[in-house]
Design brief:
The chain is about 35% helix and about 20% strand. The chain has helices spanning about 95-100, 110-120, 125-140, 155-165, 190-195, 200-205, 220-235, 250-255, 270-280, 295-300, 305-310, 330-340, 345-355, 355-360, 390; strands at about 20-30, 40-50, 55-60, 70-80, 80-85, 145, 150, 175-180, 210-215, 240-245, 260-265, 290, 315-320, 380, 400-405, 405-410. The chain is α/β, with parallel strands linked by helices. The strands form three sheets. A seven-stranded mixed β-sheet has the order 3-2-1-4-14-15-16, with no helix packed on it. It has a seven-stranded parallel β-sheet with strand order 7-8-9-10-11-12-13. It is built from 15 helices and 16 strands.
Length: about 425
């Protein structure tokens, strides 16, 4: 395999100090044009970081001179994980609910109200501290890009402040006023939808990129979800949809109808849902099926059938759904292991879905891949190949993380 040299965009003014990472036993690029197989794999490889970008990849023996040098020591390097579905703007916890589920109580959307009460009572500083703690936790497990949502305030002021806090930490911010009907509107759900599509949307849209709705029993029906998503799109927000988590429903088909970037959960699908997601994979504005195995693990629910979706031609992403109720995990390696063990994915498919798949769900081409010009988000694993992510579940294999060219964390420095 010949070297991959700098792109024309890299030949202008210097991007900053350069760093060579060499002696990579197994480099996953997620770009077949830069290596072998569907993941574009290179062996005994190296890469160069300049500024916040990847400038070069190729064989270690042909690496160019750089300002500094890091020896990967025969370890594997993969793109930073892209967590395209999380709920990190919250206060309190739901350990009592978790314990009750462990004794047999089923999960329902109503538990969200417990978090709403705690979140409304929290200060901005407390919300920011919780967000920062979980983002740091994610980076230490290899996640370099994170989407997160509002949805635990459910008033105009609380939803807007949550999004302001989130937007100061990540570009991938989602307005989820349509998480559940606010307690004050328990007897007037249409009135709450009017608020979500009116004054609340006006206050929140400037701080968000995406709009989401929980299309599910106990939350919002198909007409209500469609109204929320359509209103958000009119304000310049791109739809995402919580779809078909607790049972069959219209969520997936609404997501495809509205060219949503993702239909998330996808646990209970009929043949028409699967066909719709397969066709949407090649649409001008594709819809990705984002699967959230941490949720099924936590709630003891049936896992989504990733094999069925992949065989049909759908694009699949994996994400943590990190939230205080139904999936309180921030570990993408854990989700990879569960997807391989329980959802019919191969190790390569699960890795792609946790990196490039997540990037597709965010409609990003600069992350989830390691190729010249991409953002320099990379993870060094204390293993000779990324198969160990599924092969050794629960073992902390992430040893170094670069995020936008910055050496963001090292286990060896802890």
């Amino acid at each position: 395999m010949s070297d991959t040299h700098r792109t024309p965009a890299d030949t202008g003014a210097p991007a900053g100090p350069s760093t060579l990472v060499t002696h990579i036993a197994h480099l996953t690029t997620n770009d077949p044009s830069h290596g072998t197989g569907p993941l574009g794999t290179l062996h005994d490889a190296a890469l160069v970081i300049e500024g916040d970008r990847i400038a070069w990849i190729g064989e270690s023996s042909r690496a160019p001179a750089t300002d500094s040098h890091v020896d990967a020591g025969g370890r594997a390097v993969v793109p930073g994980f892209v967590d395209s579905h999380s709920h990190l703007l919250f206060a309190g916890d739901r350990t009592e609910e978790f314990t009750a589920r462990a004794t047999g109580r089923p999960y329902s959307a109503g538990g969200i109200r417990t978090t709403v009460t705690a979140t409304r009572a929290a200060t901005d500083e407390e919300l920011a501290a919780t967000l920062d703690r979980h983002l740091t936790e994610m980076v230490r497990q290899g996640t370099t890009s994170t989407e997160t949502k509002s949805g635990y305030g459910l008033t105009v002021a609380d939803e807007a402040r949550a999004l302001r806090v989130a937007a100061s930490r990540t570009d991938e911010v989602t307005y989820l006023g349509a998480h559940i009907v606010a307690p004050e509107y328990r007897d007037d759900p249409d009135g709450y939808v009017a608020l979500v599509t009116g004054a609340m949307l006006d206050a929140c849209a400037p701080h968000a990129r995406w709009v989401d709705a929980f299309c599910e029993r106990g939350a919002f029906d198909g007409d209500q979800a469609r109204a929320v998503l359509t209103a958000g799109r009119a304000k310049g927000l791109t739809p995402r949809v919580h779809a078909n988590q607790l049972g069959p429903g219209p969520g997936v088909r609404i997501a495809v109808e509205l060219a949503a970037a993702s239909a998330d959960h996808c646990t209970h699908l009929d043949d028409a849902d699967v066909d719709a997601l397969a066709q949407a994979a090649t649409a001008p504005e594709p819809t990705v099926a984002t699967l959230l195995p941490g949720c099924e693990f936590s709630t003891r629910s049936p896992y989504p059938d990733a094999r069925r979706l992949l065989d049909a031609g759908a694009t699949v992403a994996l994400s943590t759904d990190c939230n205080p109720g139904s999936s309180f995990t921030s570990s993408m390696p854990f989700c990879i292991a569960v997807a391989v063990r329980e959802m019919g994915m191969t190790p390569d498919e699960a890795l792609w879905s946790a990196t490039a798949g997540g990037a597709a769900a965010l409609r990003r081409t600069d992350i989830g891949t390691l190729r010249p010009g991409a953002r320099a988000d990379l993870v060094v694993l204390d293993a000779p190949s990324p198969v160990h992510l599924a092969y050794r579940p629960g073992v902390p294999l992430v040893t170094d993380v670069w995020q936008a060219g910055r050496h963001a964390w090292s286990r060896r420095a802890d």
